[in-house]
Amino acid sequence: MPKEQAVLDVEDVSIAYESSQGSVKAVTDVFLKLMPGGILGLVGESGSGKSTLASGIMHLLKGSAHLVSGHIRVNGQDVYAMDPKLLRKFRWDRMSMVFQSAMTVLNPVMTIEEQMADIFLAHRPRMSKGEIQDRSRSLLNMVHIADKHAKSYPHELSGGMKQRIVIAMALALEPDLVIMDEPTTALDVVVQRSILDQIKALQKERRFSVLFISHDFSLVAEIASTVAVMYAGKIVEVSESQGLTQNDLHHHPYTVGLMRAIPRLTHEDVEIEGIAGNPPNLVELPSGCAYHPRCPLATTICENISPELQAVQRRLIACHYFDPKMRGEFSHVF
Amino acid sequence: MSSKAIEKISPLNQPLVEVKDLVMRFPLHKDWIRAVDKVSFHIDRGEVLSLVGESGSGKTTIGRLLLRILEPYRGTMSVANHDITHIRGKNLVSYRRMAQMIFQDPFASLNPVKTVESHLLFPVKKHRGGHIQQINAVVDELLTRVGLSPQETRRKYPHELSGGQRQRLAIARALAVEPAFLVADEPISMLDVSIRAGVLKLMNELKREFQLSFLYITHDLASARYFGDRIMVLYAGKVMESAMSRELVRNPWHPYTKLLLAATPGGYHVESLPEKVNEPPDLSESRRGCPFAPRCLYSTRECFDNMPETQEISPGHFIACYHPQIPSES
Is B107 part of the contact surface with chain A (CB cutoff 8 Å)? Predict the structure, then answer.
């Protein structure tokens, strides 16, 4: 039996922007793998490179952003080696994306029905008008939107409904990979929860794979089976989401910092602790480990050498503190 | 009036802010919508009241009313025993020395062509006066108090500051007039996760140090609980439930509070959301009954016909519901 192929395989990818101050790396040496039916969470603050990575996977990098090195394969096919015509067909058919602001994604002067029909007209030219209508309606029903809204314009719908429609559109051609970039950030908690529940139910039923991007740690831990934490363009930790919100020391110091930074509803000890300093400026990244100026464990080695991801128990962590060979360097904490 | 004058009028743990039957309406399509509907509450001196609700629930409107950026349609508001409901002119200016606001978006609430120090020099000069050396000393003190280094930041422009630093400056500006009461409207929701805690902790320290009263407006129950002494839950302009923070999160009686808690990430997870339909509430003036009734699992005829009166279900714990649900957590 052949080994199961990854739906998404990000191999040593770096993405840079050109600026007046030279080339700025927004994503550096990232490896990610997503198997069929999996949900991979990607957590990071603004400017950590998570959205750039998402656009990179879709081959939708804008402006001066470009892939510097590495390979991105979806269903085994290299997205950057594909003929542009084929890529246009491939995109949305096999991989699709849900953007953060549904309000700006939908065209304000077209009805929902017309916008959904666009997908089929472009990708399924043989479908008849009647088939397209039926399929659009059943997609809307799938996300619990009544038929009568098919003829609505986006401004007539609530934010939650628009976001549901955008999700339905992403699933229209039954892709294998759906990238969701902060799909619920602009929504109220109750609407957010109901959309997350729907994503989970649909994912269970149709077995597509999801790359779920968010800045909200507890949200990602709830929906994803595996969580990758990104800081200054690098993956600093990959961990199973189970038990992730429990505070323990076998995490990257940045992950620990993030967990301590948010007040939690159910925790009795409500003392919170912010991370010192500010998120890094990508133009002038700190030397060595980019997190070292804010890290409570940092030592000389962290200022000089950037750590690689390595297995620590059942996690991958990029931190010298967890490297047995570096134990001597951390005598001040042990 | 400065906060020192207030100290005499309003001792600690006595109501500083009192709001009664506040109503605000806005015109919409030749009709009116009720953004705030008969809301009453008080905030003690040195107390933080968290106002929690979805977008459109009227929480920001209440904040703006209290600072008299808006004028209420009905009801009364008083701060330190002064009626501020309809004050104008000089009285309004002097009221602003007592009450200040921290806005949600520190990118929009600061003037991009003014330096950090000029954001503070003006209010300090106007409010406290004195020699330029004295004024400068106060500016340095304010910056230091909010965790900004005067040497490094005084001559910078807002675009040279990070989001967290901007919000700290906005807080310093609010403190410049020595207020007794602050309205903080989602002050951390636009900030990066890793620096939210710092700003929350700063507000907590300021509250203790200056016995400030806060109206903390947020959609996030977890931070409402962390910062607020009490939480008031708002839906469609009406108060559904209010109690001490810990009590409200652990023993919610109102079906809407239970729904909010179930939906909050990292909370008590449930299989399905306790609601009938997910639709926005009716805000029209002509509506009747409880605005949550169409979504509520327990609603009856009565709920659609009349708005329930507020009742005290246990000491300090108020709800407005005909069918209070026994808290499952005990």
Answer: no
Give rounded-to-5 percent helix, strand, coil for chain B: 35, 25, 40
Helix or strand run (H / E) with residue B235: strand B230-235
CB–CB of A171/A208 below 8 Å?
Answer: yes
In chain A, which residue's Cα lies nearest the Cα of B192?
A45
Which of B164, B259, B261 faces A278 most closely, judged by CB atoms?
B164
Listed residue (B90, B81, B83, B103) closest to B22, CA to CA: B83
A295 is written with which tokens?
A: 């890290």
Please write the tens of the pLDDT for every residue from B257-309: 999 998 887 766 566 777 877 777 888 888 889 999 999 999 999 999 999 99
Contact B192 A45 (CB under 8 A): yes
Domain spans in chain B, listed from the N-terminal domain onward: 3-228, 259-330
For chain B, positions 209-248, list CB contacts with chain A under 8 A. 219-223, 225-227
Contact B221 A265 (CB under 8 A): yes
Residues 190..249 of A with a Cβ closer than 8 Å to B: which? Answer: 190-194, 197, 215-219, 221-222, 245
pLDDT tens, A256-308?
888 888 777 766 655 778 888 878 888 888 889 999 999 988 888 899 899 98
Exposed/middle/buried for residue B107 (C-beta within 10 Å: 0-12, 13-18, 19+) = middle
Strands B213-218 and B48-52: what pairing?
A: parallel
Q: Which residues of B touch A215 (CB under 8 A)?
A: 192-193
Look up the CATH superfamily of B3-228.
Answer: P-loop containing nucleotide triphosphate hydrolases (3.40.50.300)
Residue B31: CB partners within 8 Å, gap ≥ 6? B284, B285
For residues B88 and B94, what is the distance between their CA atoms, to the nearest angstrom? 10
ipTM above 0.90, yes or no: no
Residue whose tokens read 């007046």: A20
> pTM for the full model?
0.86
How far apart (Å, rounded) are the C-alpha atoms in residues B260 and B245? 14
Contacts B262 to A, Cβ<8 Å: 193
**In this structure, what token pair is assigned to residue A84?**
């542009």
- Residue listed under structure tokens 């906060």: B3
Helix, strand, coil percentages, rounded to 5, for chain A: 35, 20, 40
